[in-house]
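Just curious. Invent one:
>
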Amino acid sequence: MRIGGLSPKGLSVVIPALNAAASLPATLAALGDAPAEVLVVDGGSTDGTAEAAKAARLLHAPRGRGGQLAAGIAAATGPWLLLLHADTHLAPGWAEAVRAAMADPGRAHYFRFALDDDSPQARRLERAVAWRCRSLGLPYGDQGLLIHRDLLAAIGGMRPLPLMEDVDLARRLGRARLAEIPVDAITSAARWRRDGYLRRSARNLTCLGLYYIGVPPGIIARIYSGRWRG
């Protein structure tokens, strides 16, 4: 919501979505009317994602988070971009914190990772992610990313990768051009509970390792989704 002059001006929020009808309403509700525009880029959903996105501007692009983000960025009008997952909602105070971060357009800014799960496993994962960001300069897309359009262009823009687009972007930015916003980005833990925290963490680390040794993102995407056979 807009609070006096604290609403971030010129902010376009870009949300790639795929079968996100269950989570997208909470994501959009947390944004309120603070952004200048919100774009939901659907990658071919077969559920009620289009209806859930009725409070935003709905676009369509081929499935693949990097390509969907690239399409949304191309259509966005604001100088500032907030790239946000459809199952992640920002905690109260995000708009004021983003406005403060906009004073530093030479860096990209990510939120603190949090899960909507009270389990000890969730807290351990949150601490591990905080260490990864602090020590390796490697925030993931489920933490959101605030970046000025000029900085994004300077590092080559958003590459239309089917997976690992967040790691690719963080690597091109480098640790010195990344800063934390002290507000939680709260991600649904449904997939972690479904797959198991250890199993999902191991799969994510495997995909990250494959990316770093040069395996094409298309193959990694197939492994990630369990479609590498056949």
User: Anything to note?
Assistant: The longest strand covers residues 178-187. The beta strands are 11-17, 37-42, 57-60, 80-83, 88-90, 108-115, 145-148, 178-187. The chain has one domain: 11-194.
